[in-house]
Amino acid sequence: MKLKDKIGQGLTNFMYPYIQKHIQERGDSVLKLDMENSYYGLQEKYLWFLGNEELLADFYATRTQSSLTVDTKASYYYSNLDSRIRIVHSGLPSLCSYAKANLLLSGGLEYSVMSGEKELEKDTQTLTDILDDNNYKTLLKSMAVTESWAGRFAIKLSIDKKISKYPIIELYSPLSYKSVYIRGRLFELIFIEIYQEGKYELHEHYGKGYIKYELYKVNAGKSTKVLLTEIPETAELKDETLKN
């Protein structure tokens, strides 16, 4: 270790207790919510997109990144306000996102199922029925809006005959799914469903050729894997293997 590195390490070790003491005495009695950097950034973007002043003030006042020693958010505007100051958000981020979506979809959408250069008319009609059943125009706009503030989104395809005879198309923002990459390549999407007001989390693993379900019980921020039959909402779920 070089001399300057030793000095820097020494200063850090010396100052750390004082930094922690300052943070505690400043009045941060609310427990911090530890989040990964990427998730933290997504939540921040989503709150700006929503434009809710109270949620923004709460976010900056009571949350920090676990990877930071010093709470840099303490100097932000929203962290230094009292009840005497009313904040009115412009709503501009949301307006920009919806304007982008409207612009992209202003020309409508044409589609067909093709085999080579020949259209398969029956399959095109089936596709039309599926898209209409899923209210695809609204769905597409929501996709464009989500991509605008989050940078990405995922689509989950499922079948539930109790709801529809057609495949169900669902949009997920990055706050509700995780991507699993191996050597830089996407291998799996994990969709997260919340049940019983956050007491349980269902993780739906969508990979190539399979769908696997895992149920977790959440208690005091800790997740414990339990049987799918523990709650009625997931009791009938079974893993699926998709051939070919």
Query: What is the strand content?
Result: 15-25%
Chain oligomer state: single chain
Calculate Rg over CA atoms: 24 Å
Order of H and E elements: HHHHEEHHEEEEEEEE
- Derived structural class: alpha+beta
How many beta strands in the DSSP annotation? Answer: 10
Described by strand count, sense and barrel closure, the largest sheet is:
6 strands, antiparallel
Given the C-alpha coordinates, what overall shape results? globular
Report, as a whole number of angstroms, the end-to-end distance.
56 Å
Which range best describes the helical content: under 10%, 10-25%, 25-40%, 40-55%, 55-70% or over 70%?
25-40%
Structure description:
The chain is of the alpha+beta class and 244 residues long. Helices cover 36% and strands 23% of the residues. The chain has six helices and ten strands; from the N terminus they run ααααββααββββββββ. Strands 5, 6, 7, 8, 9 and 10 form a six-stranded antiparallel β-sheet that branches. A two-stranded antiparallel sheet has the order 1-2. Strands 3-4 form a two-stranded antiparallel sheet. The longest helix is centred in the N-terminal third of the chain and has 23 residues. The N and C termini lie far apart (56 Å). The relative contact order is 0.07. About 7% of the residues have low confidence.
Strand and helix layout:
Layout: H1 3-25, H2 37-50, H3 53-62, H4 92-104, E1 114-115, E2 118-119, H5 121-133, H6 136-150, E3 154-158, E4 168-172, E5 177-182, E6 185-195, E7 200-207, E8 210-219, E9 222-226, E10 240-241
Helix pairs in contact: 4-6
